[in-house]
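Narrative of activities, Objective 1.

The group set out to show that a structural description can be obtained from nothing but a protein's sequence at a throughput compatible with the screening campaign. Below is one input-output pair from the validation batch, recorded exactly as produced.
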Amino acid sequence: MATIIDSHFLAFTALVTIGYQFLFFVVTALLKFDKVTDFAGSTNFIIIAVLTLVIKGSWYFRQIILTFFVGIWGFRLALFLLFRILQWGEDRRFDEMRNNLGRLAIFWIFQAVWVWAVSLPVTLVNASDRNPFLHVVDIIGWILWAVGFIVEGTADQQKLNFKRSSDNRGRWCNVGVWKYSRHPNYFGEILLWWGIFVASTPVLEGAEWLVVIGPIFLTLLLLFVSGIPLLEDSADKKFGNVDGYRIYKKRTSPLIPLPPSVYGNLPAWFKTALLLEFPFYSRNLPQEENWSCFGYASVVFGESTQRDSDRE
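Output recorded for this entry:
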């Protein structure tokens, strides 16, 4: 069926994704049950990868490896996010959407586009008849994926453990890999999907290189739209007058893990140009003069404790 629709599985995976996301959209809209949202997104990646591998039926080593990578990533993330939302209750992202069918539909459409676009490299690999011998870039891509997968999984688990402790209630997470990056889970996710793209390049020809849209889309999404900006805004509004938080933010890289002693001493232009410390990440941070007064009062009255940001 897929090869009849299109030889590269692009239309086929689009239809599968639309159908799968529409099913969960209906459940969410009718039952006001949004605990399955992230689960629907993560498992959709697995479905696309496995379906394209099985339907093509070539079973080349490169296809199997990349499908396995997508599968293990999606399985871990789906279970982690489902377990977390079942523990925490309702997803606050949908507080203003549950009774607004239009806004809810836009969210699910966007999620479908995200899944389909980011899956493009593995989709094209699984659809290809080409099977060149393993290249150095295959190994590089696998290494990038492995490092990203480990970083993302470690960051998720460390933050979950941190928030489970009653001693950390109302504190922002700055333990483990969170000491070196304010968003290490996003760094890991971006890295692993670029790794999948790099490992897909030996089979790409001509216009097929446009699958680079996948990792580019993911990177731009997390850097400028629904990832870091939203979480930075939320944290700044809550803790911007807490001196400890402001010190943490000043000394901790937004994405790429670096020692605080190194990052904190770098010039502002260098952080912006090369380390993605964009000014709009601090648009809700109170002005320095206001913070100084509050910070002093916090120290005097013993209130300079951390406050945890929403979700990451």
